[in-house]
Fold this protein.
Amino acid sequence: METVNWKVEGMTCSNCALTISKYLEKEGLENVMVNPIDGDVRFDAPEQTSKEQLAKGINALGYQVTGEQLALKERKPFFKGHLQRFLFCLVFTLPLLMHMFVHVHWLMNPWVQFALTLPVYMVGMSYFGVSAVKSIRNGVPNMNVLIALGATAAFFYSLAGAILNLGADFLFFETAATIITLVFLGYYMEDASIQSTQKALNKLVKSQKVMANMIAFDDQHQEVVFPVENTQLRSGDLVLIKSGDQVPADCKILWGEGSVDESIITGESLPLEKGPKDHLIGGSILTDGTVKAQVTSAADASVLSNIINLVKRAQGEKPPVQRMADRISAVFIPAVLVIAVLTFVITWIVLNDPGSALKHSIAVLVIACPCAMGLATPAAIAVGLGRAARNGILFRNAKSLESFKSIRQVVFDKTGTLTTGKFVVSNFAVTGILTEEEAFKNMVFSLEKYSNHPIASAIRDTWKTRNETRWASIREIKGLGMEGKTKEGDVWMAGSYAAAAHATTDDSRNVYLLKNNALVGWVDVKDEIRPEAAKVIAYLHKKNISTILLSGDRKQKCDALATQLGIMEVHAEKTPEQKLQLIEQLAHQTPTAMVGDGINDAPALAKATIGISLSDASQVAMQTADVVLMNKGLTMLPEALGLGKHTFLTIKQNLFWAFLYNIIAIPVAAFGFLTPTVGALVMGLSDVVLAGNSVRLFVKKVQ
C-alpha cells in the first residue's frame, strides 16, 4: 500500500468531501480522508493503482486535482476564483437591480433584461450547473443543486414570459442574476473566512521552505558556503546558520553556540541556549550566535513536517458529533427540493398567482444552507487544532479533541513525567574511616566516573573534580556497582544495598561506599520534580478533576512525591501489565486521561480514554499517545484540556446555529416573507457567521 496525498480544488462543503470519499472508496481505496477546509485528500492505494485515472475521476466529479506529481493537463478556468466571478456578474446585475428603484424605460424591455442576465446565467451554470449535474450523477446531490435549480427556474420562467409577451409580472430575470451574483459573493466571503481558520497552520507551512547556507569543500579542501533551498538538504549535509536565520532542517550542532527561539514548534516563548551536540528543530529561529550543524532529517521527514501532516490528518477526520450532521446533510437537499415543490403548488393554489408561487419556491431553494451544517464541525476543528499546534500541542485525531470534554480524572506516571528523569544529589553522610567530606566526595566520584548509570551520572556531574583517585584496576559488577583497587591493594566499592547488606540494615539509600567491605558512607539522590508539576496539579483540582499517581517506583518515593504535589491517590510498584489493568478499570468507570513517557507506559496510554505523551518521551510512548505535548513538560496540559472542551463547545454552537438557521429560514421563505435576493445574501452570510464563531477560538480564554 502507498499513502497518497493530494490537493483538490472546488470543494465548498462536507457534501463535496462526501462525494469524493464515496468515489475513492468505490474504487477500492482504503483509509480515505477528505478535508473540505483546505482541500487535502489522503488515501492508501495498492501500488498498481493508476493515480492518473483516479485524478481524472475526481475531475469528472466537478473538482480539480492539482499538483506536479500528476501527468494531467490541468484545465485552466477562465475565472480564477469566486471573487472574479462575482465582479464579472456584478457588472450585469447592477443595471437589472437599478430598474427596481429608478424608472429607466429601456431597462424595462424584457429582451434587454434577457441580454444582461444571459452572461451571468452562463457563468453561474458553468460552475453551479456543472457541479450540480455531476453530484446528482454520483448520487450525492450538493449545495449547488439548489442554486442551479433556483436560478434556472427564474431564468426560463422569465424567458417564457418574454417570448409570450405576458408582461412585467412574469419577468424575474433580476432574480436569476442576483441569486448567482450574491451566492458567488457568499462563497468568496466563506472562502476568506475559512482561510482565517487555517492561519495557525499556514504559519507553520510557510516555515517549511526557506533558503539554507550549505557547506561544501572545494578541491583545496577549503569550506565553500552556497545557498540552496532547504528541500534539497539531505541527512548528513552540513549547514551554516547565522544570527537571525531560520533553522532550515532538523540538525545537530557541530560547532558554535547560540540562542534559539522554538516558539513556532513548542509554544515556548523564551529562547533556549544551545551548543555542540544539541539538536535544532527545523523552523526555529537562531536569535543570536552562529553555528555549523549537520542535518539529521530531510525536510519531508522533519519535526515540523510531521507536525503539519499530523494536524492535517486530524483535520480530515470526523469526530463523533459530526456523524449526526452528516446523516442530516445526506437527506437535506432532497428534503428541500420536496419543500420547494410543495411551496410552489400550495402557494399557486392559495394565491392563484404562479409568479408569487415561483418566487416563494425559489426563495426556499436559495436560502436553505446544508453548507452551514457541513462546516460547523470542520471549521471549529481546524481552528482548535491550529491553535493547539501553534502552542506545541499535537492531536493525532479529531476524536481526541472532542474526548477532552468528559475527562474527570488524570493519571500521571512518575519518572520523566512529573519528574524530569534527571537525578540530583539530595543528601550524603560519612559514617566510617573517612573524616573529611571532600575526601569522601572524591572517592565516590572516582568510582562513579566509570559508570553509565543515571545515578552515577548525577553524582559525577555534582562532585566533578580534577584530583580524582587513580585506580590500579576498576570494573563494574552487575547488580552491585563499581569496584576499584588502589596500588596499595585497598578495595573500594560504590554500589547498591546488595553490596552493603553485610555492613548495614538501612536499605533506604541509593549508593553505599565501602572500603575493604567496611561501610564508609552513603549517598542519596532524588529525581528532580518538574517545576510546572505542582501548578498543573493545582489547576486540575480547581477544575474538579481528580489526580492519580501510577508508577513502577517504590511506594515510599511515590508517597513522598504525591504529598509534595498534592496528588490524591497513589498506585506504586506496578508492572506494565498492572498499569494496563488499572487504566482499563479506571477508564471503564469514568473518562480518564493518562500522561506518561516511557516504553512501559505505552500499553496504558493506548487503553486510556486519552493517552498524553511528552515530546521527550520514548518513540513507543509518542506513537501510542493520542496527544503529544511538544514543550518538554506539562505546562500545556491545562491548555490542551481547555482547548478540547471549548472546541467541542464551539462545534455545538455552530451546529445549533446551522440547524436553527434552516429551521427558521425555510418556513419564512416558504410563506413569502423573504425574496430570493435576500435569501441568497443571507445564505452566504450563514457560513461566514459559523467561520467567525470558530475563529474566536484563536483568542478565546480556554483555561
Observations:
- The radius of gyration is 34 Å.
- The chain has 24 helices and 24 strands.
- The first helix runs from residue 14 to 26.
- The longest strand covers residues 419-430.
